[in-house]
Design goal:
alpha+beta; 6 helices; three-stranded antiparallel β-sheet; elongated
Length: 149
C-alpha cells in the first residue's frame, strides 16, 4: 500500500517532500520531489501542509492572478495629498504586478518624476510617498491572493 499525499523524508540534514497532492483521493499534481528547506520534521510537515493547500486551491479555483499596482493603489487608504503624489507613479507602474516591482525600479522612478530636485530631496520625497506602501501590499497578502492577511 502506497502512502497518500506528500510525505516528508530526510536527505542529509534537510527534509524534503515527495509524492503527489491529492484531492478526494485522486492525484491532482505531477510527482513532486522538492526540498522543504527545513532542518526538522515539524517544519517539513508545515511546508507540506502549505504546499498541499496551495495546490488544492489552484486545482479548484485555477491560477491566481497577481495583484496589480493599480489595484494596490485603490486598496491603499490614501489622503487627498497622497493621492496627488500617486497619480504620476500610477502612470508608470499601474500595469505592473506588485510582485514584479523591484526596489531598483522604485529608486529609478524617483529622479524621473522629480528631475528638478536634488538627489537627496528626491530620495527623501520618494521614500515618504505612498508608492513604497502600495508596493508593500504584496507583503500583506495571504495565500488566497487577497490583500489584508
Amino acid at each position: 500500500m502506497s502512502a497518500k499525499g506528500l510525505q516528508p523524508y530526510r536527505r542529509g540534514k534537510t527534509w524534503w517532500a515527495k509524492g503527489r497532492v491529492e484531492y478526494n483521493g485522486r492525484p491532482i499534481t505531477d510527482y513532486i520531489r522538492e526540498s522543504t528547506g527545513s532542518l526538522d520534521e515539524a517544519g517539513a510537515r508545515d511546508w507540506i501542509a502549505e504546499r498541499e493547500n496551495i495546490e488544492r486551491r489552484r486545482y479548484i479555483v485555477g491560477e491566481e492572478r497577481p495583484l496589480m499596482f493599480a489595484e494596490a493603489v485603490c486598496l491603499y487608504p490614501a489622503s487627498a495629498e497622497m493621492a496627488k503624489h500617486l497619480i504620476p507613479i500610477l502612470a508608470e507602474f499601474g500595469d505592473f504586478a506588485v510582485k514584479d516591482i523591484s526596489p531598483k525600479m522604485v529608486r529609478d522612478l524617483g529622479p524621473t518624476l522629480t528631475d528638478r530636485l536634488a538627489q537627496d530631496d528626491t530620495r527623501r520625497n520618494f521614500r515618504t510617498s505612498p508608492a513604497p506602501s502600495c508596493a508593500n501590499m504584496r507583503k500583506r497578502r495571504n495565500d488566497t491572493g487577497h490583500p489584508h492577511a
